[in-house]
Amino acid sequence: MGQEKNYVITIGRQFGSGGRELGKLLADTLGIAYYDKELLCEAAKQAGVSKEFFEKSDERFPSFLSGMLSFNMGYNPMSFYAASTSISDDSIYRAQSDFILSIARKESCVIVGRSADYILREHPRCLKLFIHAPIEDCIRRIMKRGDKTTAEQARTLAEKTNKLRSHYYNFYTDKKWGDAASYDLTFDSSLLPMESIVAIVKEYITRRFGI
Known about the structure:
This protein has one domain (8-209): P-loop containing nucleotide triphosphate hydrolases (Rossmann fold), CATH 3.40.50.300. It is built from nine helices and five strands. The chain has helices spanning 19-30, 38-47, 51-56, 79-83, 89-106, 116-119, 135-144, 151-172, 194-209, and strands spanning 8-13, 33-35, 109-112, 126-132, 185-188. The model is unreliable at 64-86 (pLDDT under 50).
């Protein structure tokens, strides 16, 4: 199946809004692949750097800005990363970008985070979603899944993570994280059950992509 037949759903999300839950449910319902942190592991292997180093750089603002690279004109082959003696945040981003582009060519899938919507901006069948929710709903979800034990801790974690994601996205793209104009559809996950959001998205891609 070529890129002209594949479709990709990318999900940007506020921390605690249920983006991963929605992504997995969409992938299961539609019978397509799901990618989240496993992207880091695969790209790390391709780039010749450790999984731990990739995880530390996961959707975080670059730690240094030397050797600035433009991401507007495509991406270099993986051999560039393997040959690099020093793996920078920029080359990590480019390695992830190459992998995202390669899986989008290979198969239909759901991709959560990694500014995938921007990386796949030229893909002819890419649906860009953003999921958000009121902070109190995010706090409840964070505590329910056991990330933090108190509301104060959950709020602090959500605010910190959202700030990191925003800086990462705004740095590597020419768009604004969380701005409705940057996406095709946005959802407040507190207003509908996840299954209802999935049904809406399924109807949308059926009408838009003729699936």
